[in-house]
Specification:
Layout (H helix, E strand, L loop, with lengths): L7 H10 L1 H6 L2 H17 L1 H12 L3 H27 L2 E3 L8 E9 L2 E5 L5 H15 L2 E5 L5 H14 L5 E3 L4 H9 L4 E5 L2 H14 L2 E5 L5 E4 L5 H13 L11 E5 L3 H16 L3 H6 L9 H15 L4 E3 L3 E2 L4 E2 L2 E4 L16 E7 L2 H9 L6 E5 L3 H9 L5 E4 L20 E2 L4 H7 L1 E9 L13 H7 L2
Parallel strand pairs: 3-4, 3-6, 4-5, 6-7, 8-9, 8-15, 9-14, 13-14, 15-16
Antiparallel strand pairs: 1-2, 2-18, 7-17, 10-13, 11-12
Helix pairs in contact: 3-5, 3-6, 3-7, 4-5, 4-7, 5-6, 6-16, 10-11
Bound molecules: nicotinamide-adenine-dinucleotide.
The site of nicotinamide-adenine-dinucleotide has 26 residues, from helix 8 and helix 9.
Length: 464
């Protein structure tokens, strides 16, 4: 059945009817499905690259690094461990339940809805599907309407690999998503902005659907006096300007120790120039810089820059070409703390830099924002690293690098409160789509000793 919006409810029902069959599938059957998905991703790789370029000038290498490779890694990790993850897990039994035993049985939650954003559309829609399939759930994917060429390839891949009653794609805008959100899904996996996350959670509450919310926000970077500056600068430029800053865990703003003030901004900008070109024409022609996804987001990022120009000491870069949805890699030096660029998630190629004298000043700035999705530390001084970790919170942290926690297959990925609820990837993704069912088996029937009537003997046993 073609998956258009007129048959949303029918597809949901088909998937619901198919749940017993999905649940009954062995680890081997589920792995076979995942391997079919792997082959399709490799077969469609060229189409993904072409669509990424068409939608917003995504560089081919960035499609490979941030869309294809993480998917292949998720597939490999899940296929390798799924049998073990699915196995019921024995747990030790407390003395108070002597004579009984306990285990956790992993059962699929059931029907699931995966709502994906536009910045890494392939990984962020098919990644959760890997976890859903592994757990034995069905899935409806709602890709972003902002990247139609990539959504079309996602649909082709899904229709090539899955039956509609296993995994289906439903395209659409807010109206379609709203209709989907009215359905009583067993689990909703949403990746996107905190504002829409709240809408999703409110809709999920009506059906008490469980949710995983992978959200965004401002991810700070602390650069201590002890940081190795060259190494830090090289890593920051790649992490920030990959996908032209449109990465949920991109460094959003830098807090740099005052001892680096004299050289930091110029050295960082010099690195930008050596990677992407010294003049705006070269930068705009660089095949390594994606475009801003659409005019709406271009206007949003440009307005952050316009506001920052009146509230910062210096701006390096800052070239904007609306027709091409292009903004050049830009450093905003010492913006006021109340500038919009220091208050809103940037999600574009602007990088504010503020200098601090004491580490607690940096931590104060961070604690005034909602809890970040990622917090990065560049330092060689272990006491500073420990102090930062012990006096802050974040969904994930990298020390002396950025972004890599996202692709470490054995780490949970997700935010805290405003930056997200629940974790994903690998085993954590499998658990997100599983109900961990606690099962107790009574062997010796000793609990009967405590049953009514509560004779003096019962009271004696209960004497604590
Ligand atoms: P978004 O929240 O605008 O959209 C995400 C999805 O929600 C899209 O499919 C969209 O169609 C749908 N949507 C939009 N408005 C809706 C509404 N009113 N009701 C129901 N559905 C609606 O986010 P975006 O612009 O696509 O992506 C950027 C945001 O996503 C950033 O905040 C970024 O940090 C975050 N993000 C987070 C992660 C992560 O792993 N935590 C990854 C990528 C992006």
């Amino acid at each position: 059945m073609p998956t258009n919006t007129s048959n949303i409810e029918a597809i949901f029902q088909q998937q619901k009817d198919n749940l017993p069959a999905l649940k009954a599938r062995s680890a081997q059957d589920r792995i076979a499905m995942l391997q079919r998905l792997k082959r399709a991703i490799l077969r469609f790789r060229k189409n993904i690259v072409k669509a990424g370029a068409e939608d917003f000038g995504k560089p081919e290498a960035e499609v490979d690094i941030a869309e294809i490779m993480p998917l292949l890694s998720e597939l490999a990790n899940t296929s390798k461990h799924l049998q073990r993850w699915m196995k019921p897990k024995r747990v030790s039994t407390p003395i108070t339940l002597f004579g009984a035993s306990g285990k956790i049985v992993y059962e699929p939650k059931g029907t699931s809805l995966v709502i994906a954003p536009w910045n890494y559309p392939v990984f962020l829609s098919l990644g959760p599907v890997i976890s859903a399939v592994a757990a034995g759930c069905s899935a409806i994917i709602k890709p972003s309407e902002f990247t139609p060429a990539l959504s079309a390839v996602i649909r082709e891949i899904v229709e090539d690999v899955f039956e509609t009653n296993e995994v289906a794609v439903i395209d659409g805008e807010v109206e379609t998503t709203t209709r989907l959100l009215e359905l009583p899904f067993d689990h909703i996996f949403f990746t996107g902005s905190p504002n829409v996350g709240k809408i999703v959670m409110a809709a999920a509450a009506k059906n008490l659907s469980s949710v995983t919310l992978e959200l965004g926000g401002k991810s700070p970077v602390i650069i201590d006096a002890s940081a190795k500056l060259d190494d830090c600068i090289e890593k920051l430029v790649w992490a920030k300007f990959t996908n032209n800053g449109q990465t949920c865990i991109a460094p959003d703003y830098l807090l740099v120790h005052r001892s680096h003030e004299a050289q930091f901004s110029n050295e960082l900008y010099e690195r930008i120039a050596s990677v992407y070109g010294r003049d705006v024409t070269t930068q705009q022609q660089s095949e390594d810089l994606a475009r801003i996804v659409n005019p709406r987001h271009f206007d949003r990022v440009q307005s952050l820059l316009v506001d920052a120009k009146t509230k910062a000491e210096q701006v390096l870069g800052g070239h904007c070409d609306a027709e091409d949805c292009f903004i050049s890699p830009t450093l905003v030096v010492e913006p006021e703390i109340n500038a919009k660029i220091m208050q809103e998630e940037i999600f574009g190629p602007l990088l504010p830099i503020r200098f601090y004298d004491e580490i607690d000043e940096a931590l104060d700035i961070i604690s005034q924002q909602p809890k970040p999705l990622a917090l990065y530390i560049f330092a060689q001084n272990q006491q500073i690293i420990d102090h930062v970790i012990n006096n802050s919170t974040a969904g994930g942290t990298c020390i002396n690098t950025c972004l890599l926690h996202f692709i470490h297959s054995n780490l949970p990925v997700g935010g805290v409160n405003n930056s997200g609820i629940g974790k994903s990837h690998g085993h954590y993704g499998f658990l997100a789509f599983s109900n961990e069912r606690g099962v107790v088996r009574d062997h010796l029937s000793l609990s009967k000793q405590l049953f009514a009537p509560y004779t003096p003997r019962v009271k004696k046993i209960l004497q604590l």
